[in-house]
Amino acid sequence: MKAIASTTITYPIVETFHSIQGEGSWTGVSAFFIRLAGCDVHCPWCDQKESWTIKPYPQQSVEELATLAKQANPAIVVITGGEPLMYDLDPLTKQLRGLGLQLHLETSGTHQFSGHFDWVTFSPKPFKLPHDSIYPQVNELKVVIASQLDLQWAQQQGTKVPLGTIKYLQPEWHTPDSQQLIYDFVLQYPDWRISLQMHKFLGVR
Q1: Closest CA to 72 of 42, 96, 108
Q2: Would you give the end-to-end CA distance of the chain in angstroms?
Q3: In what order do the strands lie in the sheet with 59-61?
Q4: Does residue 60 fall inside a structural domain?
Q5: What are the E-state strand segments in 41-173?
Q6: How far apart are CA 48 and CA 14, in angstroms?
Q7: CA gap 144, 58 in Å, rounded
Q8: Which stretches of the chain score pLDDT less than 70?
Q9: pTM over 0.85
Q10: 3 part of a folded domain
Q11: CATH classification at residue 17
């Protein structure tokens, strides 16, 4: 009898956990996070460097991930990384949406856009340029600031996102001077806002 090939779709997963969204427009909201492994951007100040590689992490099926997310009963499900757009996210988002879950994406946008989301947070990095397909999808632009050059990068990226996109500047956690840079900038450019990493102040994931 001929064996039937498996059609189970899996992704390499660093972790899944239920917490609050700590950044941006949805700060404080109950969120279930799915952190995919693998990233080719390699920001020097990244606080998730363990997610850069794929090899140590188990593959989990879309069915398993959807079950975990539904059981958590969150307000939103956040797909993050690493860089999640390294993968075709259509199967995963289809499975999650089938359970009535609200889906958010956090991405640097360096690969072809895929998946179906209710909210897209775009955090572009100058270390690897974004793919053009990301710009029409953006609901929230969030740029990490460590220096004056990052502010120039943020302004450049701000001209490419849709009108009405919420635009945030976020201090790099280990660069205290960035807070003053952002404060002064926001006073001068009122279409930008400050985003703080609430979860770090609270000491939660």
Answers
A1: 96
A2: 49
A3: 59-61, 10-20, 30-36, 76-80, 103-107, 119-122, 140-145, 166-171, 192-194
A4: yes
A5: 59-61, 76-80, 103-107, 119-122, 140-145, 166-171
A6: 10
A7: 30
A8: 1-7, 45, 47, 49
A9: yes
A10: no
A11: 3.20.20.70
